[in-house]
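Thread amino acids onto this structure.
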């Protein structure tokens, strides 16, 4: 069992039979009344984010998590296929459960697959990743008054992001995987 005073960002808990990941939490002690914990939780099954408040000291079932290094093979439209690098065992995960992570994964790339209670549930990616630009319009000097500005670009994974005007096709850019924003050229 895990108590509210043992919450940590990234922990998984079981709330009424549903597994959630703690994104952020805040202990609140009002001047009048009992203390409580305000949390932001992501449902493991579909990725929905909710805000929930618990009484201080409330207990939950702790969820056993494990991370395994796997190779992302390909996606076929409904499932993403992975292979365990040690046992060569193949695994399929429904695309809708890891759709956010799939935006940033290249075929044959090594990734960490998160298992929750023995079932694959999510893909853990670094906070920033380097990807090549495969399609963008040429940036024309003088398009903006300040010399800055952005234009749409398609990355090698098929994801569309906004990049500065000086980025061309073939450039490798660093992208923040949490927000989906351009960080710098790599």
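Threaded sequence (186 positions):
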């Amino acid at each position: 069992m895990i108590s509210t005073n043992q919450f940590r960002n990234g922990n998984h808990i079981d709330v009424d039979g549903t597994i959630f990941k703690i994104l952020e939490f805040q202990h609140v002690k009002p001047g009048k009344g009992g203390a409580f914990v305000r949390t932001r939780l992501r449902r493991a099954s579909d990725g929905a984010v909710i805000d929930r408040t618990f009484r201080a000291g409330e207990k939950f079932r702790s969820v056993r998590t494990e991370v395994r290094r796997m190779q992302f093979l390909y996606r076929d439209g409904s499932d993403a296929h992975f292979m365990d690098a040690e046992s060569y065992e193949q695994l399929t995960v429904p695309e809708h459960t890891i759709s956010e992570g799939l935006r940033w994964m290249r075929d044959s790339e090594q990734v960490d697959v998160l298992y929750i209670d023995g079932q694959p549930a999510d893909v853990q990616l670094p906070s920033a990743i380097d990807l090549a630009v495969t399609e963008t319009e040429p940036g024309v000097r003088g398009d903006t008054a300040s010399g800055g500005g952005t234009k749409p670009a398609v990355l090698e994974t098929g994801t569309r992001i906004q990049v500065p005007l000086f980025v061309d096709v073939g450039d490798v850019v660093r992208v923040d995987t949490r927000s989906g924003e351009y960080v710098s050229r790599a």
